[in-house]
Design a protein that fits this description.
alpha/beta, Rossmann fold, 3 strands, 21% strand
Length: 72
């Protein structure tokens, strides 16, 4: 199967089972995945490119997470 390099980033709020399944699909397109979750042992934490510990119900945590995904 041929894959395409998009050089994109994807931020996911919540690193549960659905986030982990989404990460496995993004690997086909070489998309960098970033997870924000309060639990560093969440299912997606060991397969994402970058993990941020934070509360997705906290405005500042989510804002900082989004800012970290900006490309130059």
């Amino acid at each position: 199967m041929k894959t395409t390099s998009l050089k994109k980033k994807l931020g996911i709020l919540g690193g549960g089972q659905l986030g982990k399944m989404l990460i496995h699909v993004t690997r086909k397109w070489s998309i960098e995945t970033y997870i924000l979750d309060p639990n560093p042992d969440c299912p997606a934490s060991n397969c994402c490119d970058v993990f941020y510990k934070g509360d997705f119900n906290n405005y500042q945590d989510v804002y900082n997470f989004g800012e970290s995904l900006k490309t130059n």
